[in-house]
Amino acid sequence: MDEDEIFLNFEEGMEKSIEHASREFAAVNTGKANPSMVEGITVEAYGSKMAIRDMAAISTPDNRTIAITPWDKGTLQPIEKAIQTSNIGITPAIMGDVIRLPLPDLTGDRRQELVKFVHKHSEDARVGIRKARHDAMDAIKKLQKDGSISEDDLKRCEKEIQTETDDSIKKINDLLAAKEKDLLTV
């Protein structure tokens, strides 16, 4: 593995951690309807597991309701069941061909629970970033040990890796701060 491959893998690891945190944050109910809250829920249908986004159109007719319109009406019951067992805190209601999810008002206690939840996800993302940094540092030190790069290049690479790590952690912290503000705004 050369220096370019190491940095490519490192940057990919950082991006994956940030994207994962961003997706997890988007799925958290802030009191405003958002299709990403349900699109990743898996449904047992057609003899396999599928995400709701692959089986139905998801829309937000207003800022307090999510509407799910399955392409196959035979999947209404499995989708409803999957939403009920997903623990997202929303009770689905089937109305004709559409599953409606009216978002309940968030209580102060529920908002605090959700803040703790997003803090946990942000810490998981930071752990992913630190793991990517650790792997990159080990690989760079191995290159230096093998004689592929000089001591000066090692120091330069370590500094670059640390700078990118700090930037990525800042992005996670910014996402967390925005989500926390969203959750605590009544």
Please explain how this structure is put together.
By secondary structure, this protein is α+β, with helices and mostly antiparallel strands. It has two domains: 3-26 and 107-184, Ribosome-recycling factor (Topoisomerase I, Chain A, domain 4); 35-102, Gyrase A, domain 2 (2-Layer Sandwich), CATH 3.30.1360. It is 58% helix and 16% strand. The protein has helices spanning 3-26, 76-85, 108-146, 151-184; strands at residues 42-45, 48-51, 56-62, 65-70, 93-95, 98-102. α1 runs antiparallel to α3 (108-146) and α3 runs antiparallel to α4. The chain is elongated, with a radius of gyration of 22 Å. The protein starts with a helix and ends with a helix.
List the helices and strands and how they pair.
Elements: H1 3-26, E1 42-45, E2 48-51, E3 56-62, E4 65-70, H2 76-85, E5 93-95, E6 98-102, H3 108-146, H4 151-184
Antiparallel strand pairs: 1-2, 3-4, 4-6, 5-6
Helix pairs in contact: 1-3, 1-4, 3-4
